[in-house]
Amino acid sequence: MRDASRDPGLPERYSVTDAEEFQFALTEEHYDELYGYLFPDGEGLLNRGSEPARDSTEDRPTGAEYLTGMRERGVIGIITRSTGETRTTYLLKDIVAPTSDDDVYIDTRQGHPRLLFSPGYRTRATARAAEVSGGGLVYFHSHPGGSAYPSDPDLRADRTRLYNAAKNLGPDVPLAAGIIAERPRRESGHREWSFRAYEFDTPATVDDPDLKPTGEESARQRHATAIRVVGPGFQKLATTHTSRAAGPAGISGRVNPTEQDSAVQLWGKRGQFALSGVRVGVVGCGGVGSYLAAELAMLGVGGAVFVDFDRVKPVNRNRALGATKEDARHQRPKAEVARRVAEQHATAPGFEARAVVGSIVENQSPEHAAVGDLLDCDVILNAADPHWVRMVVDELARAHLIPVINGGTDLRADKSADTMHPMSRSEITATGPVHPCFECQNVWMWGDREEGVIRDKKPPADRGGGPDLYAEPNDDDGADAPRDPSVAPTNGLVASIMAERLQALIVGTTTETIVGGQRYRLYYGTMQWRSSDGERRTECRGECTRPEATARGDTHDLGTGHDYDLRRELDAFTSIHDELPGKDS
Which end of the chain is least crowded, N or C, by CB within 10 Å? Predict the structure, then answer.
């Protein structure tokens, strides 16, 4: 079902019950706010479970004062959908605050206590959701004790509330219910979650209600297997159904005590389990990306997705780690070579890699549109240089709550002295919720620095002079057209710092390096933080509106289009091999 309001580079939407994986994601800010409503008198802030209880007046979100003293507490949120190639994620866009003691209350008239949401509160939340493109509702409540398993009354209440929401908002919006246990689990220090998505048939979705029942009894349910919390940091929390999913589909995989011993000595099994529970996307599998393939696999991540449409050739093999002369002779896709390198270096049991011969900016050819594959990832590492690519990952990071780490190098030669030019530099920068965006960090530009995104979107014949967007094939010998210089040592340096930033994000080893941009001056051998007015930039410029895109999900315009370089490369490949490479099966 193609929806004009969704970015055309996304996969077609499918039922959440058909997704291979289903998860829920929210920002650290919303995590703390949600816990402030459900546990207004207790702990619960992320990674701060041993701290004292919140101050009764200063730390609570607005409206939490109406929920104190209750055995169970509840709040309503607005959610959106993020549709990956195989994974669907519901995103928390906003929380609708209670405004009186009557909004959420305990009813005992039927002989046992029931948590209820008033009609006025439900109506107000529905109206707020209707203002959000693609917005739906989620009903949260707390459970006394340490278990978040829903009771039969919980499930009946889910169906009643959410079917009414489906009738008011439409059957295609995301609808869900969540439970969070009050007592943290001893082994993790975090409260257990239950998060359930619901879909219904309504009279508006069936031709003959007599043949296909509508109403609450038509409910289809899907349990999330992980909760992703994204903020400057990143964590995955367990749900009641996490045990049914291994590796990135859940929150962790297995540890290899032999091959991962030296890493476990540094951050313990907890850190290694966290790495085994993430799937990392790599955009651009040439100089930097090929090194990332090996380093991520050795680090112990649970899975990887490699995206690139370029091919290994004799003229670029000197900067592609793991590429052989045979790869260059057959001009094998760099993404497939990166997958092979990762599988050869993997230390995580059950490691899975996917190669996508495609483009993140493409939306004309579903076979080669790679956005959906990257929405299956927990973190994305971008090693592609074009401004357009960096713009799209910048938009994706906020709209879909997926942190992105970017790395690249600008090498220049001082030909008069046969030395590196003092302006040569490598830069590694992060973005995502709470981070400054890439545009505010000057990682990409719309129409400057050799025309930026404007130039990248033009057909090659219209771009004028300067290095090409990607390598351009030469009909005679397969050589590339002139482009920016690249050497293996610098590529390896950038890849290693990107991997260190990922390690800090997932394991928390060096938390001071999570936010901001680093710049390495090759001529001087110095590393500096990119700054604004002498200080490290840790937030967007005041006039930037990109934070408003946070958690918009599928309806946010990522800026994809027709990637002329993708088509040219595929045409060249076809002339050699008589078939187009596509997505991994």
Answer: C
pLDDT (tens digit per residue) in 419-461: 888 888 999 999 999 899 999 999 999 875 566 888 888 888 8
pTM exceeds 0.85, yes or no: yes
**Computed from CA positions of residues 61, 66, 67, 68, in that sequence, does the dihedral angle turn out positive or negative?**
positive
Residue 12 · residue 18 · CB < 8 Å? no
Tell me the residue type at 319. R
* Per-state percent for the chain, helix, strand, coil, to nearest 5: 30, 20, 50
Bridge partner list, 75: 140
Backbone angles phi, psi at 517, to 5 degrees: -115, 135
* Nearest-angstrom CA–CA distance, 117 and 291: 53
First-residue to last-residue Cα distance in the chain: 22
- Token pair in block for residue 283: 């955009």
Phi and psi angles of residue 374, each rounded to the nearest 5 degrees, phi first: -75, -25
Residue 563 has what DSSP assignment?
-
Radius of gyration over every alpha carbon of the chain, rounded to an integer in angstroms: 25
DSSP 3-state of 5 = coil
Cα three-residue angle 130-136-140, rounded to 5 degrees: 125
Q: Is the pLDDT score of 266 beyond 90? A: no
Whats the size of the chain, residue-wise? 585
Give the whole-angstrom CA distance, residue 561 versus residue 400.
19
Pairing state between β 234-237 and 227-230: antiparallel
In angstroms, rounded to a whole number, what is the distance separating the alpha carbons of residues 332 and 547?
Answer: 39
